[in-house]
Amino acid sequence: MIFDVLTLFPEMFDSVLSYSILKRAIEKGKIKVNLINIRDFSKDKHKRVDDYPYGGGPGMVMMPQPLFDAIEFVKSLGNIPVYYLGPKGKIFNQEMAVKMSKLERIAFLCGHYEGIDERVYSAIDEEISLGDFILTGGEIAAMAIIDAVTRLIEGVLSHPQSAIEESFANNLLEYPQYTRPEFFRGMKVPEILLSGNHAEIAKWRRQKSLEITLLKRPDLLKKAVLTEEDKKFLREKGFDI
Ligand SMILES: C[S@@+](CC[C@H](N)C(=O)[O-])C[C@H]1O[C@@H](n2cnc3c(N)ncnc32)[C@H](O)[C@@H]1O
């Protein structure tokens, strides 16, 4: 899968792409991150990409010309959806990550300063937000999304089961995980996990997953695919289903 990233700060991506799963995904040829510097598209003799907002107000706004040209360059490479990363967009989630992971190529436009000239919205496909807060630029949001999507691409994780069991995969939060030692500061690993009884462990994990989701994110349960046994368990815990 190819990610095209339109940014004023391509160097910001260096460290994130040089470690762990993203590094290995690049080495294995599973993903390619094509960093495109928006400044290269500026027709201004000083390579300016921002200007003062009409009507006054603080900060600078990214000018339409370099952004339109950069987006049109990406579009000339193929049928590539261009997502603007901005706080007014649909909030990113695992379902969107799964959909994106099935695409061959996708582009992200990272804003900066006070954001982009409103007319640029006519050139993008959709705006995606990382959450209800303001970032300095879209770069960190693009990195987060690239990371979440890459994990879902076949052959990227050495244990593909991880992506299936992780939180949000089925609109349930993941069950609790433990590792060595068995005892730590008076806290003991649940006995069932030491039993070697895989069927009972699977049952315990499923119930814990339901319990944690009920406690921390009951909103997710409405979208989760639940068995009759799950529903019975949740009813016993007082959930109206
Ligand atoms: C400082 S923000 C501009 C915020 C803008 N003035 C507003 O109030 O909506 C600069 C850039 O950061 C990015 N950004 C900020 N918050 C974001 C979020 N929650 N998700 C994704 N990108 C975000 C956008 O690309 C935006 O153009």
How would you describe what is shown here?
Its EC number is 2.1.1.228. Residues 1-223 form the tRNA methyltransferase TRMD/TRM10-type domain. The structure is a single chain. This protein is of the alpha/beta class. It contains 8 helices and 9 strands. The protein has helices at 20-27, 64-76, 94-101, 139-150, 161-165, 198-216, 218-221, 228-236; strands at 2-7, 32-37, 50-51, 61-62, 82-91, 105-110, 126-129, 183-184, 187-188. A 5-stranded parallel beta sheet has the order 2-1-6-5-7. It has a two-stranded antiparallel ribbon with strand order 3-4. The longest helix has 19 residues, at 198-216. It starts with a strand and ends in a 5-residue tail after the last helix. The chain binds S-adenosylmethionine.
Which SSEs are present, and which pair or pack?
Blueprint: E1 2-7, H1 20-27, E2 32-37, E3 50-51, E4 61-62, H2 64-76, E5 82-91, H3 94-101, E6 105-110, E7 126-129, H4 139-150, H5 161-165, E8 183-184, E9 187-188, H6 198-216, H7 218-221, H8 228-236
Parallel strand pairs: 1-2, 1-6, 5-6, 5-7
Antiparallel strand pairs: 3-4, 8-9
Helix pairs in contact: 3-4
Bound molecules: S-adenosylmethionine (SAM).
S-adenosylmethionine (SAM) binds at residues 85-88, 110-112, 114-116, 129-131, 133-138, 141.
Shape: elongated
CATH homologous superfamily label of the largest domain: SPOUT methyltransferase, trefoil knot domain
Named CATH topology of the largest domain: Alpha/beta knot
End-to-end CA span = 40 Å
- Tell me which ligands are bound: S-adenosylmethionine
What is the tally of beta strands?
9
Poorly predicted ranges: none
Helix content: 25-40%
Rg is 22 Å
- SS summary, helix count: 8
- Total domains: 2
| Binned strand content | 15-25%
CATH class designation of the largest domain: Alpha Beta
Please provide the ordered H/E string of secondary-structure elements.
EHEEEHEHEEHHEEHHH
Q: Order of strands across the biggest sheet?
A: 2-1-6-5-7
State the secondary-structure class.
Answer: alpha/beta
CATH architecture of the largest domain: 3-Layer(aba) Sandwich
**Biggest sheet architecture:** 5 strands, parallel
Query: What would the average pLDDT be, to the nearest integer?
Result: 97
Enzyme class: transferase
Pfam families: tRNA_m1G_MT
Catalytic activity: guanosine(37) in tRNA + S-adenosyl-L-methionine = N(1)-methylguanosine(37) in tRNA + S-adenosyl-L-homocysteine + H(+)
Function: Specifically methylates guanosine-37 in various tRNAs.
